[in-house]
Amino acid sequence: LEESYTAVPEAGPPIVVLHPGAGDPRRHWPTEGFAAVGDALAQAGARVAVIGGRPKERPLVDAVVDGMKAPALNLAGRISLRGLAGLLSRCAVVVGNDSGPLHLAHAVGARTVGVYWCGNVITAGPLTRSRHRLAISWRLNCPVCGVDTTRTPCPHHVSFVADVPVDEVLEPTLELYRDALHGG
Questions:
Q1: Is residue 122's pLDDT more than 90?
Q2: Which residues contact 165 (CB under 8 A, 6 or more apart)?
């Protein structure tokens, strides 16, 4: 936990982590959505930290932090996996795409809101909903060429979750944040 306290000191409002990255760009929810969620959480009293471990995630993290009106901690490339596990365990809630950090948050017991493509939620989604919420895109056709990707592979690597409305992420996030504040 020590590294997580260096990155985000203990004193202060509850911590919320946003993770806009994912190994597959088809699982990237728009950074504008993350920024809107971050601003709403900051307005609710949270300290917002935005994470990204791989170099290609830095522009995503920067876009979220720059897109927010409220201040946020930019932790892109500034915390190890061990430190990340510690940080996630301290969070009121973690919001992210279907990705390693989101699954790590599940593993360390954090409340989570995950943005998933319907084809992945079956194999990668959390098994319970008591501390985990899902925002699911039901898009089956490639947004570029229209191919039904459940039947035919598509060469395009564009987001399949961009159509998830901000409210579908924000509402469960605020619900879990309030639960965390009240010990739920």
A1: no
A2: none
